[in-house]
TrEMBL record:
It comes from Rhizophagus irregularis. The keyword Signal applies. Pfam families: E1_DerP2_DerF2 (PF02221). Keywords: Signal. Transmembrane segments: none annotated. This is Phosphatidylglycerol/phosphatidylinositol transfer protein.
């Protein structure tokens, strides 16, 4: 009986050691967007699907918010770009005229935009910056979301 208990304990320790050594493949890296470190006069909400985005695949960005101090007018832009840990832009920024989005009428203080973006082959850690700019380039809202490698 003592020999069987000893064998069982050794087997349990072996299983525990193997289980702890296996990488946690199911760990989901969710991208949490928050106001840009430089500040944002208005809060904008951003979500991305799939989350995290897959390299060389399209991702859907949903951007919405209500501007409290400003109004979106003709010439206002939605800007989306990725950057590395050093603040270098990865690829080209995507810039769209907000007033040309389906269902959007300008002037407006509320917006809800959906934009499909082709994702590049990105490094393990990177950030997405989503900005709402007026016609003169002034930031009306900004959100930053960082994806970190496992």
């Amino acid at each position: 009986m003592m020999k069987q208990t000893y064998i069982l304990v050794v087997i349990l320790f072996a299983i525990l050691s193997i289980a702890n050594a296996i990488p946690h493949q199911l760990y989901k890296r969710a991208t949490t967007f928050a106001a840009c470190p430089t500040g944002s006069p208005n809060i904008i909400t951003v979500s991305i699907q799939p989350d995290p985005p897959l390299a060389n695949q399209p991702a859907i960005f949903t951007v919405s918010g209500t501007l409290k101090t400003d109004v979106i007018t003709t010439g206002s832009k939605l800007v989306i770009f990725a950057m590395d840990d050093n603040g270098n832009t990865l690829g080209e920024a995507l810039t769209d005229d907000i007033c040309s989005f389906p269902g959007m009428t300008c002037p407006a203080n509320y917006f809800s935009l959906i934009r499909k973006v082709q994702i590049l082959n990105l490094p393990a850690t990177y950030s997405f910056v989503v900005q709402i700019l007026d016609a003169s380039g002034k930031t009306l809202g900004c959100s930053l979301g960082t994806v970190t490698g496992t």
